[in-house]
Amino acid sequence: MGVSNLATSFNPKKLPKTPLFGTDGIRGKAGDILNASFTVQLGYWAGKVLEEAANNSGPIIIGQDSRNSSDMLSSAIAAGLTSAGLEVWNLGLCPTPCVASLAGDSEAIGGIMISASHNPPPDNGIKFFGNKGTKLADPLSQKIEYHLRNSQVQDAINPIWGKRYHRPELVGEYVKMLGASLPQNISFKGMRIVLDLAWGASVKVAPAIFKQLGAEVISLNQSANGDRINVNCGSTNLESLQQGVKEYKADLGFAFDGDADRVMAIDSKGRVIDGDYILYLWGDRLKQEEQLPDDLIVATVMANLGFERAWEAKGGKMQRTKVGDRHVQAAMWSTGAMLGGEQSGHILCHHHGVSGDGIQTALHLTALVCQSGSSLTELVDNSFRTYPQILKNVRVEDRERRSKWQECEAVQNAITQAEAAMGDRGRILVRASGTEPLIRVMVEAEDRELTSYWTEKLVRVVETNLAA
């Protein structure tokens, strides 16, 4: 039975009118857009486009997180790929950067990760990587979407089917890469580290490599559990990790998201050490080692003003991009920057790879602490002070209203009023999330009262005019 028979219930006319691909692949509630019939078609056309772009034959690597729907989506997309005549290497449970790393370092023509990252359990997503391990270029994702909307898959008269192979042992190659990226002979012996694994994709990899390097590891949320992934834990909910670090009197702690491409740290005092601090500390080390071209760090519009001004005071430069690690990545390629990332914990270091990697970032921050002879607490105390920054999310379920929020006159007028009132004492960022049905409102200012006032006012306007 061919792919057109497998996906008879797929109707392109029922697809949303807004673009399917967001800032990080296709994401939504499992069983809604991301159902079996759609995903088979997606696999078929993604395979055709990736094969054409690579100009050679090779396998597609698939990985997944622990969500209950990930098995279904992994099987469906593999069915589409093999119907297109392609070979599939299925890694099973693994971090997203594992897929990216193997796609770039093997004969594969691309990679696919089944995950909704930090989203709640009912959601899922499909992320694509090219044959160099980088996020799929916009023209290729647009081509896949065009075929999904306009082309009809036909069974070949003499079909050549691809095969699917289970290759979990390849995750070990990724683990070797993580170790090889660290300073030679580094040891974490004597360090006590708490890891919040978020019931997700890092459960097998992260504790193992930290223990191999000599650390005493306490793991929280340490098994793969699709019902609990990211629920009150992980990089977006740090309370349990903060408690764990204090309870176990640990040197530091790390929280990964569901697919382990981002990380947040906690110091021994229980303070949150976000991506801005990680970029500053790692950037300072690379700058001292003359491994940071033009002393440039790429960050997003979310990066704290305190970070930016402190980095500039050290003689460094910062370039801001739109939110999303794909935009950070693009700026790094165009400028030659070697370090970039997001406040949310997506960190990219081109000395060691082309993908944001939470586990690798955690390892390098730990190595930096070991080499410094200071604690993470001391390093942070001697870095910079953040400006008060408040981020609030407003849920806007209507996809079209959310994508066209900038056309709302009331919201634009409120933003203009707030910017005029704050002047150069602060800044405002309102944007639609590329991964969730949210409008994000961020206000940052020297004064916390000013920050709180304008955040609340803008949130009320968005709720009234877009969410109602």
TrEMBL record:
Catalysed conversion reaction: alpha-D-glucosamine 1-phosphate = D-glucosamine 6-phosphate
Enzyme class: isomerase
Binding site for Mg(2+): 117, 257, 259, 261
Phosphoserine: residues bearing it: 117
PTM field: Activated by phosphorylation.
Lineage: Bacteria, Bacillati, Cyanobacteriota, Cyanophyceae, Pleurocapsales
Top-level taxon: Bacteria
Biological process terms in GO annotation: carbohydrate metabolic process; peptidoglycan biosynthetic process; UDP-N-acetylglucosamine biosynthetic process
This protein's record includes keyword Phosphoprotein: yes
GO molecular function annotations of the record: magnesium ion binding; phosphoglucosamine mutase activity; phosphomannomutase activity
Protein name, per record: Phosphoglucosamine mutase
Limits of the Alpha-D-phosphohexomutase C-terminal domain: 391-457
Note on cofactor: Binds 1 Mg(2+) ion per subunit.
GO terms under cellular component: cytosol
Listed EC numbers: 5.4.2.10
UniProt keyword terms in alphabetical order: Isomerase, Magnesium, Metal-binding, Phosphoprotein
Active site per the UniProt annotation: 117
InterPro entries: A-D-PHexomutase_a/b/a-I, A-D-PHexomutase_a/b/a-I/II/III, A-D-PHexomutase_a/b/a-II, A-D-PHexomutase_a/b/a-III, A-D-PHexomutase_C, A-D-PHexomutase_C_sf, A-D-PHexomutase_CS, Alpha-D-phosphohexomutase_SF
Role description: Catalyzes the conversion of glucosamine-6-phosphate to glucosamine-1-phosphate.
